[in-house]
Amino acid sequence: MSAAEDAVLRALGAVLDPELRRPITDLGMVREVAVEADGTAVVGVLLTVAGCPLRGTITGDVEAAVAGVPGITGVRVEMDVMTPEQRNRLKEQLRGPGAERGVPFNRPGSLTRVYAVASGKGGVGKSSVTVNLAVALSRRGLRVGIVDADVHGFSVPGLMGITQPPTRVDEMILPPVAYGVKTISIGMFLPENQPVAWRGPMLHRALEQFLTDVFFGDLDVLFLDLPPGTGDIAISVAQLLPGSEILVVTTPQAAAAEVAERAGTVAAQTGQKVSGVIENMSWLQLPDGQRMELFGSGGGEQVAARLTSALGTEVPLLGSIPLDVRLREGGDAGSPAVLEEDSAAGAELRRIAGQLARRPRGLAGLNLGVTPS
Ligand SMILES: Nc1ncnc2c1ncn2[C@@H]1O[C@H](COP(=O)(O)OP(=O)(O)OP(=O)(O)O)[C@@H](O)[C@H]1O
Ligand SMILES: [Mg+2]
């Protein structure tokens, strides 16, 4: 290989596969590199599957990376598709050699913290909290994923602005990435607005498939956005991910707090840990600076205190998020409010994410039988 070709190859090391988030040079995706006499670089790229929706992105990224190499006058990207053997090698490389199928987050060595975001009542802001915490943690440099476990009422793709379907590499599903967060939702597999009329067993299977067939890679944090209540999905999550912890979302309202408490006390039966309570819609800041408590006050404190005494372990109130038009607008636009410096709700969500980020990675939710002093 000539020095110029070597330089091109090194530049390609900075090109990440948009879904796998690893250098294409590490993934066996660079078939050949040649530099012609006139300085044109020819890069042969192997796509995982034909019709890869991201071929345009990859082409652009390769062109941009290679164009900066000294002496290169032009770039030609030639696309091809991996053979089944090449794909198998890639899958094995991603999963680790000889890895058995199953939920990777349950393997003994898994250091991923899994948070199931739950509430009693619907519409209290679970999905908004989930995506904003995920994006805030990703911004802090953590590797983050979201599973939209609200199969009937999925909303995560919209909140994350994802319209692109997942790529399938044989049985492996590569989740779309938005704001650095790997995200999967049943909504990505359905024609627009088609309802999902499934009962418990099908819901369980869908969730199981997301957890086994979707390739998230090594995550620091995985969020599950649950449907409201303490139904089938909450129980499936406890079964499929026994190490998952629960984040309870409530509004300040007494009626919401009572049902939120039930969503938390389920943990006593499933053996899960409740890692905290988040109060949402806590107040509305009026133009004169006053706080109007539209939904009353104290719900978050109440749920935290009651869960602490019911479960016998400290369940903290992690934060209180004000009502904020920016949060709703950001949700509608697919651009989470935590990305906006001056959104009040965004700031509080960033603060809550900071508390989660400080918790050590690993042995998530496992009861080690010791009490830290
Ligand atoms: N702090 C807030 N300020 C303004 N609007 C908010 C706030 N929190 C949530 N919302 C809005 O309230 C609505 C419900 O929020 P969201 O969908 O996140 O709740 P949910 O608990 O996931 O609902 P569901 O139970 O249907 O899954 C959305 O329109 C969202 O934009
Ligand atoms: Mg929701």
Automatic annotation (TrEMBL):
Gene Ontology terms, MF aspect: 4 iron, 4 sulfur cluster binding; ATP binding; ATP hydrolysis activity; ATP-dependent FeS chaperone activity; metal ion binding
Keyword Aminoacyl-tRNA synthetase belongs to the record: no
MIP18 family-like domain residues: 5-78
Alphabetical keyword list: ATP-binding, Hydrolase, Iron, Iron-sulfur, Metal-binding, Nucleotide-binding
Annotated InterPro entries: FSCA_dom_sf (IPR034904), MIP18-like (IPR002744), Mrp/NBP35_ATP-bd (IPR019591), NUBPL-like (IPR044304), P-loop_NTPase (IPR027417), YlxH/NBP35 (IPR033756)
Binding sites annotated in the UniProt record for ATP: 120-127
GO biological process: iron-sulfur cluster assembly
SUPFAM superfamilies found in the cross-reference section: Fe-S cluster assembly (FSCA) domain-like (SSF117916), P-loop containing nucleoside triphosphate hydrolases (SSF52540)
Keyword Hydrolase: yes
UniProt-listed HAMAP family: Mrp_NBP35
Subunit and interaction comment: Homodimer.
Similarity comment: In the C-terminal section; belongs to the Mrp/NBP35 ATP-binding proteins family. Belongs to the Mrp/NBP35 ATP-binding proteins family.
Function in brief: Binds and transfers iron-sulfur (Fe-S) clusters to target apoproteins. Can hydrolyze ATP.
The protein, known as: Iron-sulfur cluster carrier protein
Protein source organism: Arthrobacter saudimassiliensis
The gene coding this protein: ylxH
